[in-house]
Design brief:
It is built from eight helices and twelve strands. By secondary structure, the protein is α/β, with parallel strands linked by helices. A five-stranded parallel beta sheet has the order 2-1-3-4-5, with helices on both faces.
Length: about 240
């Protein structure tokens, strides 16, 4: 069972009353908390200490929550729960695609918030496992019916014949291999593949994955190797 006393949560919201209410409620449930009034303060705290989860408001003066989330995902891999205005559905969709783990509409139901925080923390060990895999992956590994040569940046079909792939396609394959069993948003894929020549709402990643599927999937129209997770992103391999 999860020991909540060992979990530290960073709450970033520019509304003092809401921020203090959330921190107080979670502390009464045994969590440790730290509050930040804006994104700059949150970034400073993240540099000083370790947190297990971030609760992040979307609408804040200065750097908004979605921009702050993008920065977080380039430096840290920990659960992020977004707070959004109840009517802002588009913010929720964009947030999930950019790597948010969950969202909760305002006004906040504290019991639901606690349940979502605990659920996100239970999923967090999978993130740690994915990070460990990412550091150690080398050599060759199966990728669906194909064989991916990590060190040589090459892809081979079931008969051992090399499949022509671009540098970006190899980068995407490597990211999937490093994160086997983990759902990745479009933003995470582009960040980890080191391709920043894109716009925030660009769906070119969908086209690139479609091309990859034609090269590696036995039936590209019904992909089974790189699967789509509707509203979130893509996944390679089975969920742990």
């Amino acid at each position: 069972m999860m020991n909540v006393a060992e979990k530290t949560i960073l709450v970033c919201d520019d509304e003092p009353q809401l921020r203090e209410m959330v921190c107080e409620y979670l502390e009464e449930r045994g969590f440790q908390t730290e509050g930040a009034a804006h994104a700059g303060e949150m970034h400073a705290l993240l540099e000083k200490r370790t947190f297990d989860l971030i609760i992040l408001d979307v609408t804040m003066p200065g750097e908004d929550g979605l921009s702050a989330l993008r920065t977080i995902r380039t430096q840290f891999d920990l659960p992020v729960l977004m707070l959004t205005a109840a009517a802002e559905v588009i913010d929720r969709i964009i947030g999930l695609e950019m790597g948010a783990d969950d969202y909760l509409g305002k006004p906040v139901d504290l019991r639901e918030l606690e349940a979502r925080v605990k659920a996100a923390l239970r999923r967090a060990p999978g993130i740690v496992k994915a990070q460990a895999t990412q550091r150690s992956i080398t050599g060759r590994m199966p990728f669906g019916p194909c064989l991916l040569d990590i060190d040589g940046a090459r892809l081979f079909d079931p008969d051992g014949q090399e499949i022509a792939i671009t540098a970006m396609e190899f980068s995407l394959l490597k990211v999937f291999a490093q994160n086997c069993g983990r759902v990745l948003s479009r933003d995470q894929l582009l960040d980890q593949a080191h391709d920043r020549s894109w716009e925030p709402f660009d769906r070119s990643i969908d086209l690139r994955i479609s091309r990859l599927r034609r090269k590696i999937e036995p039936h590209a129209s019904k992909p089974d190797v790189i699967r789509t997770v509707r509203g979130v992103g893509y996944i390679f391999g089975q969920v742990d």
